[in-house]
Amino acid sequence: MTRILIDNVDYLLTVDQHDNILEHASVVIEDTRIAAVDRADAIAARYQGSHFDRVIDGRRTLLMPGLIEAHVHLSEQLSRGLFPDSLTTRPWVFNWAKPFYAAVDEEAEHWSVLLACLEMIKTGTTCFLDMGSQNDAGITVQAAAQAGMRGITGRHAADVKPEVIPPYWTPEMVAHHFFRDADEALAALETCVKRWNGYADGRIRCWVNIEGKEPCSPELHRGARELAERLGVGTTYHIASSIEEARLSEQKYGLWPVERLERIGALGPNLVLAHVVAIKEHEIALLAQRGTKVAFCPGTSLKIAKGATRIGKYPEMLAAGVTVALGCDGVSASGALDMTRQLYLAAGLFKDARMDAAMIPARQAIRMATIEGARALLWDDEIGSVEVGKRADLILFDLNQVEWVPCNDPVQTLVYAATGSSVKHSIINGTLVMENRRVLTLNEAEVIEQARRLTERVVARSGLKRGQIPITTSLYD
Length: 477
Ligand SMILES: [Zn+2]
Known about the structure:
By secondary structure, the chain is of the alpha/beta class. Helix content is about 40%, strand content about 20%. Strands 1, 2, 3, 4, 5, 14, 15, 16 and 17 form a nine-stranded mixed sheet that branches. The protein has a four-stranded parallel sheet with strand order 6-7-8-9. The chain is globular. It binds zinc ion. GO terms for molecular function: hydrolase activity, acting on carbon-nitrogen (but not peptide) bonds.
């Protein structure tokens, strides 16, 4: 057995049921799990004479559960800054993201995932829900395992082509993105889950992920949830991700997207819906009734004009008891994989928009990025809080960084001042993956060099710098 002592941290945010915050506390890790959490003097007395394989000095640090990223595209990492910042959701997806994803070959995807993991580890994320690989899911699974991360991935799938294929979609890209029908897609997804779910001693899980919205049939939306249920995993996709999507849905079906999901039998507790910005009051009740989870991506809303504060009802979802987690989305969508940005936005946006300072308190934002994230990922029995028996996924912030000085209140300082670059150590599944900001699982210089090299190739293949790519779309109208 390996036993690690994290000794005498200044603050420990447990994010347990009572949101207990301990001062001058210690944590003992035995192998992959948390064995003890208590005041430092109590731990010292209890473990007097015990051997520790490792003692981490916790003085001038804040310890908390690792941040949980509830919606990300690891295969998007090489596209940062490539798409113009004048795009709304539908042209962003159909004109830019799709050609880019199709250009991500296996080698590029491997380094893209490692680069994303590097950014996540360096900013305090220990677990992610990835929308899925562009190639064999094994590439993402193995790269994330190598990085030492915990996470969930799958295989991106869709089954409804637009009536007219746009000129900037290549035949390879169409073949790459679309299955013939829902049955063919579900068969591929089942194979993928059976092959990869539970990899790396259970650290990496594989779900029945689909793209969602217009490119997926009702059969695929419903079938993904049913298949996930049968396989004992979850499913995730994009829905109600813009007002345009909701209006189209109303025109075609007479229903907004979430109510339509309910009508086709697609809602359920093993489903995480990404964005859900366009929603009506009665649809919130449907999510609460069905136990369906939401991944809110505030950074994406700011960059691609989704209208989280104008039309979004995230505070109402929280009030209705819907599990709302936070996501950075991909780096083209939001800019960065730093979850501390999302914490800040989640706590701040609605205070301003509603002119009500009681909206989403800092503590609630922290829960959304930890235990509620774990709940969304169907993993809260093992992660999301610092409690005895849970897996040791822990991060320590460096309170000697200027943004943490003074620290009159650790919760407010974390949410309104801290950035991911003040994370000092990161532990995932009981293993130290970053020590004093040096990532121990990856060769950082090599990841950065390879990512730069492959970005050139992928950007060239995508054609996004060559042609006149329109900034509007009528696809699927
Ligand atoms: Zn997404």
